[in-house]
Amino acid sequence: MPTVYIKGISKQYLPGNPVLLPLDLSVSSGELFFLLGPSGCGKSTLLRIIAGFVCPDTGTISFDQKDITNIPPEKRQAAMVFQNYALWPHMTVYENVAFGLEAAGIRNPELDRSVRTALETVQLGDFHGRKPTSLSGGQQQRVALARALAVNPDVLLLDEPLSNLDARLRDSMRVEIRRICKERNLTAIYVTHDRREALSMADRIAVIDKGMIQQTGTPEELYRRPANRFVASFLGECNFIPVTHVSSGKNGTAVKTSIGEMVSASQAPAGGSETSAMVRPENILLDPAEGPNIFEAVIESGVFLGETSAWNINSGGCRLAVSEMGIRKRMPGDKCSFSIAPENVVLLKC
Ligand code: ADP
Ligand code: MG
Q1: Ligand 1, closest atom to CA 208?
Q2: Which residues of the chain have pLDDT under 70?
Q3: Atom 16 in ligand 1: residue holding the nearest Cα
Q4: Is the pTM for the entire model greater than 0.90?
């Protein structure tokens, strides 16, 4: 399967209103790659440019060494799955899946074999004669996926394919889509605004905001080592603690905050800018036995969420959200201590 190279791609639909600023990206052969960002940030535009439905203002798209920027969509060896399924209501499931193959001039017995294989891949082998309207949302999305897979694409493009499904179905479809991509070793580019979808499925993710790639990395890299506040917040809940002074020591970077002085394993942001320390709620350990970065706090409020409790604590005038595993009764006004491991204190520009 090809590596997809995106070089200097930019786009504006209306003059003076850029949707994508020139951006570069490469998606490796066989990789399940996510474009993640808020609604309106240009994800679908970028995917449609890769598919060939939208023409970029600048830049090139290549599949391996082949520049396909000016090649029409049907000749790109790419297939797309849309959020709204885009099935033909008057055709059966079989006919819907066969449609693209027929248009490409594929005839029986190859046509029949491809349709059946695609429907079996998405576990709809017994649904040939049904009309899409008689299927559940999840089944309709599987038909849409089968239709994309039937043409045997090298590159699979998915635009928020699970957004119309309920939560339970989404979970199982995530696993299934990943399985299919990996079984077929597809180079896949998947657009979503849902961080959980991206974190749970992706080999790598590019976070997009304001028409720019903010950071590219594995789910763990982005979650644990976000490059800026936007990426940190978009990937999960976080606390930002204002930093008043930074100094580098041999065990990491020492920062002064209203909570106290803490050690971070990360480097101070370049350029001597205003700094904050980002800490995820689950990385604040209440009532620690020992360790660096131990501070005092008072419980302000909390809710029991089942496997975890979510507390708001106050330390030195700074309010912190804390996620605690297990069941532990704490009351507003209770005193507690907490610790944060230096590798979980991420220093970011304000
Ligand atoms: P996303 O998929 O991240 O939600 P889109 O790529 O669909 O974002 O859209 C990015 C921006 O471009 C939005 O502000 C949207 O309104 C605008 N846009 C998208 N398509 C068109 C179009 N065909 N004509 C004009 N503006 C468009
Ligand atoms: Mg979109």
Answers
A1: 3
A2: none
A3: 40
A4: yes
